[in-house]
Structure formats: C-alpha cells, structure tokens
Amino acid sequence: MLVSLKQRGDTIVEVMIAIVIISFVLAGGYLISNQSLLDERQAQERAEALELVEAQLESLRSATSSGSLVLSTPQAQPFCMVNGTAETPSAANDECTFSSADTPSPATTIPSYTTQITYSNFNPGGSAPFPYDITVQAVWAQLGGGNENVLLNYRIYGN
User: Fold this and answer.
1) Residue 95 to residue 104: CA distance in whole angstroms
2) pLDDT category, 96, cuts 50, 70, 90?
3) Which residue among 61, 67, 88, 130 is least packed, with the fewest CB closer than 10 Å?
4) pLDDT value at position 145?
5) What is the biggest distance separating any 2 CA atoms in the chain, rounded to whole angstroms?
6) Sequence-separated (6 or more) residues with CB below 8 Å from residue 60
7) Is the CB of residue 54 less than 8 Å from the CB of residue 90?
8) Residue 4: predicted pLDDT
C-alpha cells in the first residue's frame, strides 16, 4: 500500500484554533446581548418608576388644590397617595407599595415600587399660602441586585 505524502488537509491543531476563535466570537456575542437586555430592563423599570412618581405628584397636587388634603408643618411622617387620599405606610400593610400599574400591590410583585412623599415649608414664618418643597421618591429592587430609586422634587403652594 502506497501512501502519498502530498495529501493536503487540516491538522488537528488548525481545527482546534478555529474552534477556539469561534468560541470567543460566540461568547462575546452572548455577553453583549445579555448586557443589552439587562440595560433595556433597567431603563423600563426606571421609566415605570418615573411614571408612578409623576402620578403620585399629580394626585397630591389635585388633592391640595381641591382642599381634600391640607399640608401642615411640621410633617408628621412620610406618606403616599392612594386613590386621591394620603396613606401612611406601616409594617402591617403595603399601601405605599405599587406595581407598575399604579395600583397598590404586595411587595412580592416584581418589580414593586415603594413610594413615599415628604415635604417641608420652604418659607417658614412667611405669609400664606406657604410654598412647600415636595419630594416624591420611588425605590425598587433592580434586576441584578441592589436598589434603585427615582426622586422628584416639586414646589406646591398649600393652604
């Protein structure tokens, strides 16, 4: 049996190098797409939180302008707006924990946004109506660990 030494083909080393290169390209593509998906989800959560904070602020503004809520100084404790009324969170309820649909939901809903409204008299000793500095904050557990928050400041004139 005669074997020709001029036969050409890929050696095992060349095949292994090609597999390593393809593996690096595929791993890089996976990492980039995974990070892109995570960034998109975090942006969506932030947009939902901002929408919730704006809704809380609008509900507060509406309640103070109609006279159904009177801001007083000093503020007793943080609160949130639920169906147009001020609710104080407690360990026994989830009144100030919302889903992305702006409805109170249990803290086990993912993502769940915990909101709180605080205010202070901007011009103590001034004449009425007093301007109040309002701070509305939403906090949630972000995908990938840790907490994220959105904070919105607003000035409103109370009674």
Assistant:
1) 6
2) confident
3) 67
4) 80
5) 111
6) 69, 81, 86, 117, 134, 136, 156
7) no
8) 64
How many CA atoms does the CB half-sphere of 83 hold within 13 Å?
3
Tokens of 44: 């969506």
How far apart CA 136 and CA 7 sit, in angstroms, is 76
DSSP 21: H
The string of pLDDT tens digits covering residues 15-69 is 999 999 999 999 999 999 999 999 999 899 999 999 999 998 888 888 888 877 7
Residues in the chain: 159
Q: Does residue 124 contact residue 73 with C-beta atoms inside 8 Å? A: yes
The whole-angstrom separation of Cα 127 and Cα 86 is: 25
Show the CA angle centred on residue 21, arms to residues 20 and 27, nearest 5°.
Answer: 85
Indicate the pTM of the whole model: 0.72
Closest of 144, 109, 122, 38 to residue 73, by C-alpha? 122
Residue 117 near residue 147, CB atoms below 8 Å: no
**Burial (Cβ within 10 Å: 0-12, 13-18, ≥19) of residue 86:** middle
Q: How far is CA 100 from the centre of its chain?
A: 10
